[in-house]
Amino acid sequence: MFDIACVMKSHGVEYFDEALKAFQDKGEAALKVARQMNPQFAETIMTRLCTERASPILRTWLIQ
Description:
Layout: H1 2-11, H2 13-20, H3 24-36, H4 39-53, H5 56-63
């Protein structure tokens, strides 16, 4: 997820969209799985990633 955010921030949404067009079917499958995920579980995992394992520089960037 962080690498996706970095690409979007550095190259823009249009670049990101164009790069992913070839993977639309796989993206749709991933979205289906993500929609079935327990929101509390996802929040817990993302919070831990941002606070326990992220570098200080990454945490600062994520807060902005």
